[in-house]
Design goal:
rod-shaped; 1 helix; about 45% helix; about 80 residues; single chain
Length: about 80
């Protein structure tokens, strides 16, 4: 008697939770507002936005790298470079 069939391997689920600092959302409340139409009125909020953006962008990029690392581990490609290039 011959028995044949198809089976798919079970999915590997990462058992390590994401770092809490990577799961924080970027601030959207109390953002600086432009209070006039001169260069000085625009410069101060622009500098504050620059500081907020760099922190948020770094956290976002770290989260994307972590997600890519886990997906490559699940797919068996194991590319941990953090870059697609």
């Amino acid at each position: 008697m011959i028995l044949s069939g198809c089976i798919t391997p079970p999915l590997k689920i990462p058992n390590v939770p994401y770092q809490e600092n990577l799961k924080r959302k970027c601030p959207t409340e109390n953002l600086p507002r432009i209070k006039g139409n001169t260069g000085a009125d625009i410069a101060a909020p622009a500098i504050e936005y620059q500081d907020l953006y760099s922190v948020c962008a770094a956290r976002h990029n770290a989260l994307i790298d972590e997600i890519d690392k886990r997906e490559s581990s699940l797919n068996g490609t194991e590319n941990y470079s953090g870059s697609n290039w």
